[in-house]
Amino acid sequence: MKTFLVLALVGIWAGLLRFSFWKSRDLRRLQREGVRGAATCIGHSYPRSGVCAVLEYYDGAGNRHVLTGPVRPGPTPAIGEKTEIVFDPRTPRIAALWPVTPRMVRNRLAGGVASSLLFAACLYAALQF
To answer: What is the reported pTM?
Structure first.
């Protein structure tokens, strides 16, 4: 039982780590090397936290990509409306809404640190169990 609990915690932590630290690395790369472009809203998705725009954009080679924008304050773009994005020219599927701010990067890093500390506490408690 203890082994299963430890493996489950490690699996959850790995997912959180991927989401926070790797995403912050991607955002930093977009700040440094990203190419600004235009995207067209082609629909909306409705997560629990609000409304997200589904955006379509094309890279320098003309390949089509789709980005589901995060929930942000302010109005969501209407279908057919253009909005600015930034994407990585080497890996065009990595993209974000423009502008990518230092605060966005810090928030992702803080999430990674917090999840790592929470994981360590849970793992310690599981091993004491």
So the answer is: 0.71
